[in-house]
Amino acid sequence: MRVLSRHQREAAEGTEYLVGDLDTGAGVDAAVEGVSTIVHCAGSAKGDEEKTRTLVRAARRTGRPHLVFISVVGAERVPVVSAADRAMFGYFAAKRAAEEVVAGSGLPWTTLRATQFHDLTLLAARQLARLPLVPVPAGVRFQPVDAGEVAARLVELALGEPAGLVPDLAGPRIHPMAELVRGYLRATGRRRPIVAVPAVGRAYRAIRAGANLAPDRAVGLRTWEQFLADTVR
C-alpha cells in the first residue's frame, strides 16, 4: 500500500509513505504510478474540486486505476449558494463538485457518501465548549458515524469492482446538535448553558429539513456515547 501525504512519515510494514501535495501536484504522479486502485480521502471545504482534478489527471497518465472516493451524505441535497451558506456548509458543495469530477473522469470509479464522522463532531463540540455560553444552530441534527467503520467499508469497495455511487453509510442514531454537545460536556465534567441560535440561508434550511441525514441507512454500529466513553478523558 502506498500513502500520499504532505508530511514525511516513516514506512510501516506493508505501507510506503510518499510526500506530495494535491494543491501543487508535486509528488502525485509518483504516488499513483503503477497502482490498480486509488482511495481518495483528501478533502476540504475549499479547493476540493481542483485537488480531485489534479489526482484524476495523474491517474489517467498512469492508466485506468479504480478511483474510490469518500463523500458526504447530502452533497447533492444541500444548496450552497450564498456567502452564509458557504461559511457554514461549504463542505457539502466542495464534496459535490469533487463527486462530479470523479464521475466524469473517464476512470472506473466508486463513491461512498457517509454522514459526519464522530471525530469531526467531537472537534466541533470541543470548539463550541470553550465558550462560556455554548451556541448551537437551532434545529440542526447529525447522525455521526465511526471513522473506522467507514474505513472498513472503503477497503471493501477498493477490493471490489467499480460500482459508481453506492448506498450511503450513516451512524446508528440521529441527534440534535445540542444533544451531541451536551453529551460531550457530561463526558468532560463541564457545565455550560447551551443556547439554540437560528441561522439563515438555503443550506441551513436544507440541513434543518434533514438533508444531511440517512435514516434508512443507519448501518453504523458504534454510537456517539460509546465513542465519547472510549475517547474523552
Compact summary:
With 233 residues, the chain is α/β, with parallel strands linked by helices.
Give the secondary structure arrangement, pairings included.
Elements: E1 2-5, E2 16-19, H1 28-32, E3 37-40, H2 48-62, E4 66-72, H3 83-103, E5 109-114, H4 118-129, E6 134-137, E7 141-142, H5 147-159, E8 164-165, E9 175-176, H6 177-188, E10 194-197, H7 202-208, H8 224-231
Parallel strand pairs: 1-2, 3-4, 4-5, 5-8, 6-10
Antiparallel strand pairs: 7-9
What do you see in this structure?
This protein has 233 residues and is α/β, with parallel strands linked by helices. It has one domain: Rossmann fold (3-Layer(aba) Sandwich), CATH 3.40.50. The chain has eight helices and ten strands. It has a four-stranded parallel β-sheet, with helices on both faces. It has a two-stranded parallel sheet with strand order 1-2. Helix 2 (48-62) packs parallel to helix 3 and helix 6 packs parallel to helix 8. 34% of the residues are buried. The model has no long low-confidence stretch (mean pLDDT 94).
